[in-house]
Design brief:
The structure is a homodimer of 635-residue chains. By secondary structure, chain A is an alpha/beta fold. Chain A folds into 5 domains: 92 residues, Ubiquitin-like (UB roll) (Roll), CATH 3.10.20.30; 91 residues, Roll (Ubiquitin-like (UB roll)); 137 residues, Nucleotidyltransferase, domain 5 (2-Layer Sandwich), CATH 3.30.420; 163 residues, ATPase, nucleotide binding domain (Nucleotidyltransferase, domain 5, 2-Layer Sandwich), CATH 3.30.420.40; 109 residues, no CATH class. Helix content of chain A is 29%, strand content 26%. Chain A is built from 17 helices and 31 strands. A 6-stranded mixed β-sheet of chain A has the order 16-15-14-17-19-18. In chain A, a hairpin with a 2-residue loop joins strand 8 and strand 9. In chain A, helix 9 packs across helix 15. The longest helix of chain A has 25 residues. At the A-B interface, helix 3 and helix 4 of A face helix 3 and helix 4 of B. Chains A, B: GO terms for molecular function: iron-sulfur cluster binding. Chains A, B: This is Ferredoxin. Chains A, B: It holds the Pfam family Raco_middle. Chains A, B: It comes from Methanospirillum lacunae.
Chain lengths: 635, 635
Amino acid sequence: MPIVTFLPGFRKVEVSTSDSLMTAAQKAGLAINAVCGGVGKCGKCVMFHKSGRIRFDTERFREFFSQEERDAGAILSCEAYPEDDCQIMVPERTLIQSQQILMNVMGQETVLNPSIRKYYVQVQPPTLATPTSDLYRLLDAISGLDGPTSKQVYVPLEILRVIPSMLRDSGWKVTATIARLPAGYRMIEIEKGDTSSQLYGAAVDLGTTTVVAFLRDLNTGQVIGVGSAYNKQISCGEDILSRVNYSKRKGLGRLQELAVDSINAAITLAANNAGVDRDDICEVVIAGNTIMTHMLLAIDPSYMIEEPYVPVVRRSLTASAGRVGLSIKPEGSVFIFPAVSDFIGGDIVADIVASGMAESPDISLLIDIGTNFEVVLGNNEWMFACAGAAGPALEGGEVLFGMRANPGAIEKVSIDPATLDLRCETINGKKPVGICGSGLIDVLAELLRSCVIDRTGRINTTISHPRIRQGEYFPEFVLAWKDETGIGKDIVVTENDIKNLIMSKASTLAACIILMNQAGITREDIKNLYFAGGFGNYINKDNAITVGLIPEVPVDRIINLGNGAAEGANIALINRKMRKFVDDIAYRIGYVELNAEPTFMDEYTKGTFLPHTDLTLFPMVEKSLELCRLRVEAK
Amino acid sequence: MPIVTFLPGFRKVEVSTSDSLMTAAQKAGLAINAVCGGVGKCGKCVMFHKSGRIRFDTERFREFFSQEERDAGAILSCEAYPEDDCQIMVPERTLIQSQQILMNVMGQETVLNPSIRKYYVQVQPPTLATPTSDLYRLLDAISGLDGPTSKQVYVPLEILRVIPSMLRDSGWKVTATIARLPAGYRMIEIEKGDTSSQLYGAAVDLGTTTVVAFLRDLNTGQVIGVGSAYNKQISCGEDILSRVNYSKRKGLGRLQELAVDSINAAITLAANNAGVDRDDICEVVIAGNTIMTHMLLAIDPSYMIEEPYVPVVRRSLTASAGRVGLSIKPEGSVFIFPAVSDFIGGDIVADIVASGMAESPDISLLIDIGTNFEVVLGNNEWMFACAGAAGPALEGGEVLFGMRANPGAIEKVSIDPATLDLRCETINGKKPVGICGSGLIDVLAELLRSCVIDRTGRINTTISHPRIRQGEYFPEFVLAWKDETGIGKDIVVTENDIKNLIMSKASTLAACIILMNQAGITREDIKNLYFAGGFGNYINKDNAITVGLIPEVPVDRIINLGNGAAEGANIALINRKMRKFVDDIAYRIGYVELNAEPTFMDEYTKGTFLPHTDLTLFPMVEKSLELCRLRVEAK
């Protein structure tokens, strides 16, 4: 049975020779115009015959076409039948509606429009009368399939060298893979026969700790495999600063190698999951922070960790996989997200893409909190960003019983203001062994509501309750008694822990307020508040506002992006137009250097109160705390 | 004494601090507008201060400039003085006339506009307040010198990797080398300090036998060194066909290597001549025949020697020197001339450039004769070309005493029709050892004028003269008696030699006539007839017409191009705009395949008469032969 391929989308369908091409198109999922119902009367179902044998009575339907259309192979698809495998071009006007494929990528809608395309072409062999070059005939056939024109395509030497034998050995039937790059098109491979169904790309989130790769079929846009790997650079230092220092001592080579290895490991897992040969992956899109992407490309990141903190390169980069060292198709391309500054990297730009905030007139605030925080404020017209050190407290560092979000970590806490009875939830329900970031925010908020701590974070040791006691160095509050825990000792939060937490949250809040001041907006103008990264997934939004980690906005405006970096990379992989857009975003963002910002210390100091010195910025929190106070006092 | 550099042309001059910048500019050879005579009154001598220290009273001359101009550093050059090394931009309007430098390249005029530029920039170091990336600051400085804008320049990974240390180690003073490629700009090197005076490129004629390299200073356009080398591929076969057969047996690798080696050898000689480091050469432009350039790039040429004779690639190619294997700057670029067909190669396209025929409305005929002939007919609106085998006779092959144009070869011959006395000139004046192409044409013409041979080339053995005799196989004419020669035997031309010569000239003439018919023109329409290659340098133009090697045109319209391939390559090296033009030329030429041309055999047969069966095509020759006949008969 003949296989009919419909262009330009390369939809294939196997049909019998008695099926009309209109029927075939419908089986392939195309909605075809046919006012007359497919009886050769209305002339709306026009298509163009590109290759292969078909039956069609050109004379009978002459009147429907101009000479030019006839020359281009115009047919009425309801009256044409495939005799053999053939390629048929469907012009847009023949479709009931434009068949742009909208993809839902982790919550964001985008159009399927990858930068890599495959063209299966049946090249006309040369004759004495048409002795044009192999390359020209190949490119001519590609442009006949609605591909780029011959002059637009750059063909590297390596490909030129295989073209003559490939054409002849394949009986003049080859598949060319063409990448659309910022400055034109580039042929990245030529293969025998029809391989157009195998078109794969990977989106990679290159994190400091973990590397995640999503493998997608670029013909359908769907994820077909996911793989993740530790960032092997950890052997050169846990945090990114120590890795840069490692590179200063021992050179960049090892760090680059490890970054490349980690990405290759994640991609290999994803490819194995999908049962795809790694060599069939044509493209990788990578989002990572500025230092990580510098190290991946062996560009010296040293100057980013000293004043005045400048990256070598900010803009997006496109390089061949071979040059970067990635184990995909050697001439495949690698796209690396642009950065705004050394502290606002490609990962944050990808977060912005994932949020959609750069396309909306609504003002959004995007916050990524870890050891460092990054904050972006803006909409489709303007954007500001800043970054700074949050300190490790919100990730459990510098807190006596603080820990990362691992099993046994207290992640949710509620306290009865009357009895100070506690309810804890731990990760995986295990006996508590410590407390992680989201739990700490809860403790802070609940202690404040219970009037155990005041707005400066001091524990009221005049309250007589077994949970409130003087510890070795500081007053402390007991979260779990030793027989309840998995570590055989009481788990407490000390006044010093609380001070460290407040310092962390104060700097994040100050950053938000400085950007809001810069833009001249108030918290009421913020229509969406996005949490990027893992932190937002578990945090109690109410409590985050109560302690003044973030400005007060209605809770339903707070959205968890989750892994926004991965999501943004996936969107750019699927829709090449987003790549130009990410550069625009990166250029458009006004970076506010907090170290050079005179009001920062002042805003920071104001933020060291819970939630802030100025309660008019937190009116709902003020009311709620007042109610709590009354209730506690009434007790 | 301060050195002042005038942009955008990078003209440098050393002057005293009491010389005004106008004086400095005049010393640097710039013609500056100064209606008031340089006394600060007319405001015509405006320049822009870009870097370094100068003295200029901005307030005093405030009225002459807009705020925007003042911000850009506008000064009146007659009232400004250098304090230290500085860079001054001279806008075009300040020059009395546009300072486009016209170069005379081997007889053709072209504009100095190389594709490679160097930009010496003093980059602003970053501060906390301006923490833009290294790359951006570098590119910004370049665009400030009238260079391409930041977004236009592609910077390969290898360069990105050295930028941060290079900027800091040089005190932020670097020279960036930027190539303009077909699809944008590419940074190919960054160096410490000011190296802008060292900007070199090479033009290469890649011949089957010889490779010639011209090294040029691209700041001035002048040739500073020439080198030539044998094409080392000769070890794989003397003629190009045997080399292609060698590649079929043993692969292309060796042939590529030898082509690269030969070019490197010629470039090295040229660089040594000029005292230039080979690594300072930024660009090479290469013109060669289609098979040679395919072999240079390791692209299989096999299919060019079998029907239907198709090259793999026709269009011009730009590749990095590293990928091609040339020993210049590794990121330097290599431009290879486009071909029209496998028989009309980049060497012929370069000939066309050298002739200027593609820019003129006058119709020209260009002929390159060797073992093969290539013929191009046309003007700035249309062009046709064809090629074919001339046979070796015109280069001395298949002729009993034929030889190449080496010392001792008879190169000029005249015969007294009355006495058949001979006057021969040999190359280097040595005793004759054989006869080369130009000598053979002379013999043919002179024997015809003396009625020793008839128009079919038969020797009239009825003439009783010692020089006319029956040889071993054929009748023959004695050119030199054995005691006059350097080989101890009589040097003769046989009737068979004459037959072979006529076959060679007949195919060349047929090609010319077919193109003329194709274009619908007559010999009177031909305004220029160019001989490319060595053949034209020595040939007697009158005799070439008399024997019917070329159509009859007035002799003063015949021009020897000499090494047109080298000339064309030099023009494209100096003026990058010609590169787009050569692709246009190559695309524009209609290639006429003589093997597929039904009238070829007919035209060829007509051409086997001297000069042609139809004497109305050679009216002057007819008259002159008639006069000769009368004179001989009157004797």
